[in-house]
Amino acid sequence: MTTIRCDIVSAEAEIFHGEATLVVATGVMGELGIAPRHAPLITRLKPGQVRVHAADGSELFFYVSGGILEVQPQVVTVLADTAMRAADLDEASALKAKQDAEQALANRSDAMELAEAQAQLAQAVAQLQALERLRKQLKH
Amino acid sequence: MANAREIRTKIKSVQNTRKVTRALEMVSASKIRKAQELMRASRPYARLMRQVIGHIARVNTDYKHPFMAARAEVRRVGYLVISTDRGLCGGLNANLFRKMLAEIRAWQGQGVEVEVVAIGQKAIQLFRRIKGVTLTASASHLGERPHVEQLVGVIKVMLDAYSAGRVDRVQLCYNDFVNTMTQNPSSDTLLPLQPGSDLAVTHDWDYLYEPDAPSVLDPVLKRYVESLVYQATLENLASEQAARMVAMKSASDNATKLIDTLTLIYNKARQAAITQEISEIVSGAAAV
C-alpha cells in the first residue's frame, strides 16, 4: 500500500509526523481528502479537525484552529495556527500594540529617568572608587 | 574599632549582594534550558514553512505577492527590534542597540526615514526618547514562554505599513543565540522576503490554489513572517538568559574577590587595634 508522509506542526510544537494512507482536512472550500500522489495543492484551513489514517491502520484526529495545508505528491504539510485567528482579532491586537506605544510615549518622563540613571551611575562610580582605594591600601 | 565595624558591615552587604547574584545565576541557568527547549520545539514549523515558501518561490505563477518583490526606491525603513524586558544581562541590549543605531544613522544620512516597532521594555524605553525615529507599536512582558498571539499585533502593524507602502523595507533586529558564551546582535531583512540562492530555479508546475493564489499566498507569507519573528523572539530569550547567567557569574566572582580583600583589611585593622592596645598598656606600665 502506498503511503504519503504527513507533517502537522504549529509554530510552538510539532504535533504529528508519520506515514499516512489518507489525510482528511477542512479547507476553506470544503472537505479535502488527500491520498498518496495527489497533485500539488495549497489552501487555507478552516477551524476543524484533521483526520489522519496512519499507515498502521489506526486513525488519528487533530483539532486545528485554522492554518495552511500544502500538498506535494509525496508529502502533506499542515501548518496549524496556534490560536484562534480572525481578521478582526488580528486587527484588535494590532490596535493594542499601537496603543501600547502611544502610552509609552505619553508616559515619557525623561527627567525622572535621567535622574534615576544619574543616581545609579554616581553610585556605581563611588563603589568603583572605593574598590580602587582598597586595592591601593592593600599594596602599601 | 570603629573602622573595623565599618568594614564588617561592608562585608555583610557584599555577602548579601553575592547571595542575590548567585541566585540569579542559578535561575538563569535553568531558564536557558527551557528557552532552548522552546527553540527546539519551534524548529519543525520554521523548517516546513521555509520548505513551503521555497516551493512557492519556485512555482511558475503569474501572481507575484508584494512581500516577494523588492522595491526600487527606499524612502522609509521599518525596524522591528526585539529586546529584553529586564536588565542585569550584561551588554546584551546595549550591543544590539549600538548596531541598530549605527544602521539607523546610516539610513538617515541617506535621507531615509525610520520607524520602529519595539518588543521588550528596554527597546521601548530607548526608542521613545530617540529623536527622528517614530515608535509606532510596541509589545512587552512576553514572559518566559512567549506565544505567537502576543506578537501578532506588532507584526501586523509592520506588515500593514509595508502593504500600504508607508515603509519600503523591514529589518528585524535581535540577539542570535550561538551558545552560552556568545550571542550575536543581528539585523536581518524581513521584507521584502529574501529568496535563497537555490530558489531561482523555476519549475514548470504550479499549485492548485483553493480558492485562488492571492487569498492563499497572503496568509502563508504572513505566517512565514510571524514564524521568523517568533523564532527571533525565542533566540533573544535564550540569549537573555545566557547573558544574564554570565553577567551574574562574573558579579558573584567579583563579590567573592571583594569579600576576600575586605576580610584581609578587616583583619589588619583588628590586629593593628590589638597591637596599639598592648603597646599602650606596656608603655603605661613602664611609666609607673
Describe this structure in words.
The complex is a heterodimer of chains A (140) and B (288). Chain A has 2 helices and 6 strands; from the N terminus they run ββββββαα. With 140 residues, chain A is α+β, with helices and mostly antiparallel strands. A 5-stranded mixed barrel of chain A has the order 1-2-4-5-6. Chain A is elongated and about 85 Å long. The relative contact order of chain A is 0.14. Chain B is 60% helix and 15% strand. Chain B is built from 5 helices and 6 strands. Chain B has a 5-stranded mixed sheet, with helices on both faces. In chain B, α1 runs antiparallel to α5. The longest helix of chain B has 75 residues, at 213-287. At the A-B interface, β1, β2, β4, β5 and α1 of A face α1, β3, α4, β6 and α5 of B.
Across the major sheet of chain A, the strand order is: 1-2-4-5-6
Order of SSEs of chain B? HEHEHEHEEEH
Structural class of chain B: alpha/beta
Could you say which structural class the secondary elements and strand pairing of chain A correspond to? alpha+beta
pLDDT under 50 segments of chain B (min length 5)?
Answer: none
Please identify the oligomeric state: heterodimer
Order of helices and strands of chain A: EEEEEEHH
